[in-house]
Write a structure and sequence with these properties.
With about 650 residues, the protein is of the alpha/beta class. It has 21 helices and 24 strands. Helix 6 runs antiparallel to helix 18, helix 7 packs across helix 9 and helix 7 packs across helix 10. The longest helix has 23 residues. The N terminus and C terminus are likely disordered. GO terms for molecular function: 5'-nucleotidase activity; metal ion binding. Pfam families: 5_nucleotid. This is 5'-nucleotidase domain-containing protein 3.
Length: about 650
C-alpha cells in the first residue's frame, strides 16, 4: 500500500515541536494510503503503538477528528536524507492545507484584487488544517517544481496508470466535497474599502462632486439621454429613420469598457492590457475569439494605441475608455447604430460614427436638454439624496469645512440640492464652484473665477477671495489653492469619475481621494450569494489541482489534468455572466483585475458605493488596506483570512469587523 510520508528535520533541540495533522489519517485511508511521519531515525505509522523508544507519540482528539504527532528531539540523532514516498508531494499538498487550500481560503481576497472586507465566518479554520508546520526548524512538506529533488510523480506502488487515475479522481472528489461544505460569509455593501491607509482625524476639509456623488439618478435618466441623442443623430446628422426602433438596453454595458474607434469594437481590458476574450462586441453581437486574435495579433493591446491618461482617444490613441456613469447610454447608442448599419449592409466609416455619437451625447449636456428635463420632473430622475444630506449635516456639526466643485450649471445643481437638502443647502458649503470644466480645472492655470448671481448672471469683478454663500464659475485649482490655502492631505475630495475627479488631485496635489462606485452595491450582493461563493471556491481549488499536477508527465495523469482544464474553461464564462452576460464584473476579468480596477486602486485612497457609507464611521476612524500576500510572499499566519487577521481573533469587536 502506498504512503503519504512526512519527513521532519530540525536543529532546534531546546523544545519539542508539534506537527498538527487535520484529518490526515482518515484522508489517507480514504484514498487507499497510509500516513507515515519520519523524525530523525524514528518513524511513526498509523499501525504503530502510541509511544516508541525516542518519545514519539500520537494523541487522538475524537471531538474534532484531529490527530497530533509530537516529538521530543532532545535524544534524537541525525537521520539520513531519505527521499519522500512517490505520492507524498502531490496528495499531501492537495488534500491538505499546504500549497492548495490556503489559496482556497484566500480566494475572495484574490477575487477582488483589491483590499477586501473581513470575513465573518471561520470556514477555513473549520475545514482545512496543515499537514505539517513549516515553522522554524521544520522542513517544508512540499517542494516547488524544479527543486533539488524534482516534482514527485503520481503512480501507485505497482505503477499502473489505472491506479493513478483512480487516485487522482479520488483526490478531485475529496477536494470538491470539502469546498461544498464551506460556510458562506458576506460583505456589507455599506463598507468603505481602503486602497491606502487614511485617518479621518487628519481631514479638515471635505470636497464633493455633484452628479453621482451627492445626487444619484434613476435609470430613467439613461433612457432619457439615449433617446435624446438618438433623435439628434436622426434629425441633425441625417442618420436613418430606422434607428428610432432602438431602445435603451439598461443591462447591456458596464462602466470602464474600451472602444476601438477604428474597428468599432467595444471590449473589456484587464490591468495588463489584455483583452478579455468573450467580451468583445461589434454592435450588439459578440465577436468570435479567433477573429479578435487575428485582428490584434493576439489579445494584447499595445500601450501606444490605448486611451490617453484621461481615457480619451486623442493624439494617435485609437482606444476610448468610458469611465463616466453618464457614458452607459453613449456605449449603448454606439452599439445600436453599429448594429443597424451591419444589419442593413450599409458601408460606413467607424471613426465618423464615433464622432457623431460623441457630439450628440455632448449636445444633450451642453445645450441643457438633459438639465431642463430633470428640473421639470425631479422626483422621476433623482433617485435619493436624503442620506447625502445626513452626511453633510454630520460634517458641518463637527466643524468641518466643505466645498463643491462640479461641471454642472448652477440652476441644475440648485434645483437638485434644494430637493435633496433644502433651500438653505448653500449654508453648508464654504465654497461652491459650478461649470468647473474638470479635468481642465485641475491643470489649466489661465481660467479665472467668475461670480454668478442667484439668477445666473455673470459678474465682471476680480475675485480676491472665495466667500461662503457665493457661487463661482470656472476658475482653476491653482487659484483655488491660493485663495483658500486648502492644501495637501488635510483635504478629502469625493467623486465618481476616477480620471476627471480624482487622478490629478492625488498625483499632483496630494489631496486624499474617495471614489463613489454605485455599482459596488450590486456586485457585492451577487458575491454574497452562496451560489457565487461555492462556484469561486471550487474554481480556485480546481485551478490549484491543475497547477500542482501539471508537472506529472505520465499519460494517465495528463489525461486527467486535461479533463480538469476543460472543466475550468467551461466554468469561466459563468463567473462573467453572473454579473453581466456581455461584459461581466466591473472589477474583474476572468481572474485578473480590470483596467478600471487598476486605475481605481491607483487614484482613490478609499472607495464606496455611496457617500452615505460615511454615516457608519466616526470622524476619528482610520481606514486600513488589507495586507494580502503578494505572489512571492508566504502567509504570515496559517489561519489568516482576507482581513489579514485570524478568523477567530477575540480582539475584533463586531462593529470593527464590518469596517474596511
Amino acid at each position: 500500500m502506498g504512503q503519504i510520508q512526512i519527513k521532519v528535520e530540525t536543529e532546534n533541540v531546546e523544545s519539542g515541536f508539534h506537527c498538527k495533522v487535520s484529518q490526515g489519517w482518515q484522508n489517507a485511508r480514504r484514498i487507499g494510503l497510509s500516513l507515515a511521519v519520519t523524525c530523525r531515525n524514528t518513524e511513526v505509522t498509523s499501525e504503530q503503538p502510541q509511544r516508541d523508544r525516542f518519545g514519539i507519540y500520537k494523541e487522538a482528539f475524537p471531538a474534532c477528528g484531529r490527530q497530533v504527532v509530537r516529538s521530543n528531539l532532545r535524544t534524537a540523532r541525525p537521520a539520513e536524507n531519505t527521499a519522500m514516498a512517490p505520492l507524498s508531494r502531490s496528495l499531501s499538498s492537495l488534500v491538505k492545507h499546504t500549497g492548495c487550500l490556503w489559496r482556497v481560503g484566500n480566494f475572495r481576497s484574490s477575487q477582488q484584487g483589491l483590499p477586501n472586507h473581513p470575513f465573518r465566518s471561520g470556514w477555513m479554520k473549520k475545514n482545512f488544517r496543515a499537514v505539517s508546520c513549516v515553522g522554524a526548524g521544520v522542513q517544508p512538506l512540499l517542494q516547488q517544481p524544479g527543486a533539488k529533488n524534482g516534482a514527485a510523480s503520481v503512480r501507485s506502488s505497482s505503477s499502473e496508470g489505472q491506479d493513478a487515475t483512480e487516485r487522482l479522481w479520488s483526490l478531485y472528489k475529496e477536494t470538491k466535497r470539502q469546498t461544498e461544505v464551506i460556510c458562506t460569509s458576506s460583505v456589507d455593501p455599506d463598507t468603505i474599502f481602503a486602497n491606502n491607509e487614511m485617518s479621518l482625524r487628519d481631514i479638515e476639509i471635505y470636497g464633493f462632486d455633484y452628479d453621482y456623488t451627492l445626487a444619484f439618478y434613476s435609470s430613467h435618466l439613461h433612457t432619457l439621454i439615449f433617446n435624446i441623442a438618438r433623435d439628434i443623430l436622426i434629425n441633425n446628422h441625417r442618420y436613418p429613420e430606422g434607428l428610432r426602433k432602438y431602445e435603451y438596453i439598461p443591462d447591456f454595458a458596464v462602466r470602464g469598457l474600451h472602444y476601438d474607434v477604428q474597428k468599432a469594437l467595444l471590449m473589456k481590458i484587464d490591468a495588463f492590457h489584455y483583452i478579455q476574450l468573450g467580451t468583445v462586441y461589434r454592435g450588439l453581437h459578440p465577436v468570435p475569439d479567433e477573429e479578435v486574435i487575428a485582428m490584434y495579433e493576439g489579445s494584447h493591446v499595445p500601450l501606444e494605441i490605448m486611451s490617453d491618461f484621461y481615457g480619451k482617444s486623442t493624439h494617435g490613441h485609437t482606444m476610448k475608455q468610458f469611465m463616466d456613469i453618464f457614458s452607459l447610454p453613449e456605449m449603448t447608442l454606439l452599439s445600436c447604430v453599429n448594429d443597424f448599419f451591419m444589419r442593413h449592409n450599409i458601408d460606413y466609416e467607424p471613426v465618423h460614427l464615433y464622432k457623431d455619437v460623441k457630439e450628440a451625447i455632448r449636445d444633450v449636456h451642453v445645450k441643457g436638454i438633459m438639465y431642463r428635463a430633470v428640473e421639470a420632473d425631479i422626483e422621476k430622475y433623482i433617485w435619493y439624496g436624503e442620506q447625502s444630506h445626513a452626511v453633510l449635516k454630520k460634517l458641518s456639526a463637527h466643524g468641518k469645512k466643505m466645498f463643491l466643485i462640479t461641471n454642472s450649471p448652477f440652476d441644475f445643481v440648485d434645483h437638485g440640492m434644494s430637493y435633496i437638502v433644502g433651500k438653505d443647502w448653500r449654508d453648508l458649503f464654504d465654497v461652491v464652484i459650478v461649470q468647473a470644466d474638470k479635468p481642465s480645472f485641475f491643470n489649466d492655470r489661465r481660467k479665472p473665477f467668475r461670480r454668478v448671481t442667484n439668477k445666473g448672471a455673470l459678474l465682471w469683478d476680480r475675485i480676491h477671495r472665495l466667500e461662503k454663500g457665493q457661487i463661482y464659475k470656472q476658475g482653476n485649482l491653482y487659484e483655488f489653492l491660493r485663495l483658500t490655502g486648502w492644501r495637501g492631505s488635510k483635504v478629502l475630495y469625493f467623486g465618481d469619475h476616477i480620471y476627471s475627479d480624482l487622478a490629478d488631485l492625488t498625483l499632483k496635489h496630494g489631496w486624499r481621494t474617495g471614489a463613489i462606485i454605485p455599482e459596488l452595491r450590486k456586485e457585492i450582493k451577487i458575491m454574497n450569494k452562496p451560489q457565487y461563493v461555492h462556484m469561486m471556491t471550487w474554481l480556485q481549488a480546481l485551478t490549484v489541482l491543475i497547477e500542482q499536477m501539471q508537472a506529472h508527465r505520465d499519460p494517465a495523469t495528463q489525461a486527467v489534468v486535461e479533463e480538469w482544464i476543460k472543466e475550468r474553461e467551461a466554468m469561466k464564462p459563468q463567473t462573467k455572466d453572473i454579473f453581466n452576460s456581455q461584459f461581466g464584473s466591473l472589477f474583474r476579468t476572468y481572474h485578473n483585475p480590470t483596467y478600471f480596477s487598476r486605475r481605481l486602486s491607483r487614484f482613490a485612497d478609499i472607495y464606496m458605493a455611496s457617500i452615505s457609507c460615511m454615516l457608519k464611521y466616526d470622524l476619528q476612524h482610520t481606514f486600513f488596506p488589507r495586507r494580502t500576500p503578494l505572489q512571492h510572499e508566504a502567509p504570515f499566519w496559517p489561519e489568516q483570512n482576507s482581513s489579514g487577521l485570524g478568523v477567530s481573533s477575540p480582539l475584533l469587536a463586531p462593529q470593527d469587523q464590518s469596517g474596511v
